[in-house]
Amino acid sequence: MISILRKFITLLWRIWFYILLVIPIIVMFPFLVISVAKDTWYPYFFRMAQFWARFILYGMGFWPQIKRLQKTKRGKSYMFVANHTSMADIMLMLHVAPNPFVFVGKKELARFPLFGYFYKQTCILVDRGDAKSRRAVFESAQRRLNQGLSICIFPEGGVPEDLSIVLDSFKDGAFRLAIDHQIPIVPMVFYDNKRRYSYDFFTGSPGKMRVKVLPFIETQGKVASDRRALRDETFTAIHKELLQDLASKV
Predict the structure, then answer these.
(1) Residue closest to 140 by CA, chosen among 42, 57, 218, 56
(2) What is the largest CA-CA distance in the chain?
(3) pLDDT tens track for 135-176
(4) Residue 17 near residue 60 (C-beta atoms within 8 A)
(5) What's 42's DSSP letter?
(6) Helix, strand, coil % (nearest 5) of the chain?
């Protein structure tokens, strides 16, 4: 009986997430539409997206705790990367990163009503099964970086199907882009998102969401052939943190 009641409460809490997702979009809708009318107005959209993200995080009872080993500089472009385990990763990234950035994400999310419209207008969409689409990502990223924006990619390419995996293998795209544009990589570790809000619909709970921003990895002077070494260095840095956190709980 207690188990059934717990699942019912969790179900209501999960539904509340989607209500929180929609409310700010409806309230800010006219301003959001205006902010995506021109590329140069994107920073205004980004600040509203940050408000949207924090509205959801705090409304769900999540409490971000951020430890920064290095800080970004205003007006500089970066490649933000993190492990990917939850829908809440998007909101947490928006909360943590101070510099306006553009997500590179899968085009399937553009199908969601209302949210999908702004996702399509503001993010760089990629169809990983289409080579032409993957090439177009680099052109779109160049345009955004020329505007002084940063880029965010979850290099696992999606949430691992096997949720027991601590960290799935990284794709090369983020590191190729970072080298092509000579921008620093900012590795982040999201420790608690899988436990707080995983893709298992009857799990999750309010609580702290710890984030550690690791020392940046520079790309100055690196060339295309360095991308795999850069990928492995970033993977190792994030994976090490996750394993240490798991060990501390044993």
Answers:
(1) 42
(2) 62
(3) 677 788 888 888 899 999 999 877 666 556 789 899 988 999
(4) yes
(5) H
(6) 50, 15, 30
